[in-house]
Every structure is written in structure tokens, then in C-alpha cells.
Amino acid sequence: MNRTKKPASKPAKVSAIKQNSVFDETPPPNPQNLAVLDESIYDHPKYYDLVFGADCAAEIKFILACGEAHLRGGSIKRLFEPACGTGRLIQAFAKKGFEVSGLDLNPHAVAFCNARFRRHGFPESAFVADMADFKVKRKSDIAFNTINSFRHLNSERAARDHLNCMAQAVRKGGLYLLGVHLTPTDVAPSETESWSARRGHLSINTHMWTVGRDPKSRVERFGIYFDVHRPSESFRIIDELVLRSYTPKQMDSLIESSDGWEVIETYDFSYELDEPIEVDSTTEDVVYVMRRK
Ligand SMILES: C[S@@+](CC[C@H](N)C(=O)[O-])C[C@H]1O[C@@H](n2cnc3c(N)ncnc32)[C@H](O)[C@@H]1O
User: Fold this and answer.
1) CA-to-CA distance for 114 and 93, rounded, in angstroms?
2) Where is this region: Disordered (predicted)?
3) For the whole model, what pTM was predicted?
4) Which residue's alpha carbon is at the smallest distance from atom 25 of ligand 1?
């Protein structure tokens, strides 16, 4: 690799890292007194897709550029996404003329994804499956998993099984782009995030916050709500995401333990192909570009 690597952005060092194994269950403020639905956000694909689907352009451009730069033994024809959710990314690739497929554990998300494929005249290319236990009939050139979905796998065994399944789903010389938020060991991790999305008369304000981190059991819990506003009603969907945590070292040792993959480059979520990063103890967001051996 003859490009200069930029170091991962380094937030100010803190003297004691917040590794809080006491979980804060305090419900978030609800000043508008919205009716609250205690449900999985993944069971609401229409709202999920609006909140997360607004801007796919940077991810699409990055995935294709990674293919150009790092794929061996042929060009990009077929792409696969484990944990594809509503299929916001595989839809965009289908529209660009690529063959695509995806899987997700959530049948509501898969139905939403396939309905949209159907509406646009594409084959229904998503199926319900566990990303740690699946087989595909046709191998892809590139697979990608961009926003932490991998961390839903709650054990080392499941994570390794996933990498092994992915090695069967991608051809030799093909790529798997795995985007994760690591737990930095030298600085305090970020704790909250808020954003909004609007389409027509539907608007959604989203907030995500850390409920607790237990580095020993490697469980991180995040609260998330969607405040949904439609002309006829407003309500809040509140959920908890339970994710397995990875320090940079833990991620390295997981990938090394799988026979099928070698890490050939690392980037951050700014998706700049010309600016690879070096993962260190302060790094949070990383896209591991792995090549199938
Ligand atoms: C944050 S969403 C990401 C969806 C999609 N990749 C995207 O970028 O919009 C995480 C997805 O992971 C799915 N998921 C969680 N555990 C899974 C598993 N074991 N196998 C397959 N999908 C899973 C959820 O149903 C959800 O759709």
C-alpha cells in the first residue's frame, strides 16, 4: 500500500475511561407527553427506512470505490448484504444495474424490502435468515455490512460463524466491508446521538443514548426512540439495542481466528478512500475491508 495512512481522529485523552457496568434505566424525557410504544424499531420498516435511508450516496460510492481498488479476479457484478434491513443499500445497487441479494432476521424488514424490489420491477432478492447461520446458492463479488449490524451477534461463536458463512457467500478475491463502532480503550466513547428525517407530512426525530456498558460481559445497551409526527397523530417508539462490544484487539483476534479473511485496509465512517486509517486504542468507527483468501 503506497498511500500515506492518516491516523484515526484522536479525541482528547481522559484520565479515567467511563466503563460503567451499572446500567442506567432512567426513561428519557418526554416533554410533549407522546403516547409511547415499547416496540422494536426494526418492526417499523417504514419509519426505519426514513430515518436511516435518507443518505446512502456516500456508502454506495465508497463500496464501489473499494471494489475498484481492492477486488481481485474480476469486476463487481454481484453484491450481498447480511442484515440488509429494509434494503436501502441493495435497492440502490439494483437500480445501478448490479445483481444483489440480502438477508435479515426480521420478516417485516424483508417483506418491506421485497415489496419495494417488486414495485421497481426487480426480483425479490431478500430472504429471512440468521447472519450467523445461512448458505447462499451464488457467491458474490462484494458483501457489505455498514452500520454495526454485526454487533447484534451476541457471542464470539456467533460472530465467528458469521465470518465463516460470509466466506462461503463471497468468492475468492472478493471483499467483505464490515463497518463497526469499536469501544476505544484510551478515550471515553461517544454517548449520545440525535438526528431528524422528513418525507412529505411524515417527520421523525430520533435520539440514541448509552444505557450501559459492561466490558466484562461485552454487553453494550443503547436506548433509541423515534418520535413520529404525522398530520393525524404523534407518538414515540422506544426500543433498546443490545450490542456486543469490541475493542480494537478483540476485533483483530476475531478476524484472525477465521480462516477465510484477511484485512487489507481500514477506513473510518467518513468513507474517504484516499484516507485509510490506522486502528488504535482511541479509534471508534472503522470499516474493515477484508479480502476472501
Ligand atoms: C441497524 S439495522 C441495519 C440494516 C441495514 N443493514 C442498513 O444499513 O440499513 C440492523 C439490522 O440487523 C438485523 N439483524 C439483527 N440480528 C440479526 C441476525 N442475527 N441475522 C440477520 N439480521 C439480523 C436487524 O433485523 C436489523 O434489520
Assistant:
1) 14
2) 1-29
3) 0.91
4) 106
Ligand 1 pocket residue status of 149, Cβ below 6 Å = yes
Is the pLDDT confidence value at 13 over 50? no
H or E segment and range at residue 128: strand 126-128
pLDDT at 85: 97
Q: How far apart are CA 225 and CA 205, in angstroms?
A: 8
Alpha-carbon span 208 to 67, nearest angstrom: 32
Identify the CATH number of the domain in which residue 66 sits.
3.40.50.150
CA dihedral over 173, 86, 162, 264, signed as positive or negative: positive
- Residue 130 and residue 160 in one domain: yes
117 lines ligand 1 (CB under 6 A): no
| Ligand 1 atom with minimal separation from the 52 CA | 9
Kindly give the number of the ligand 1 atom that is closest to the alpha carbon of 109: 27
pLDDT of amino acid 5: 40
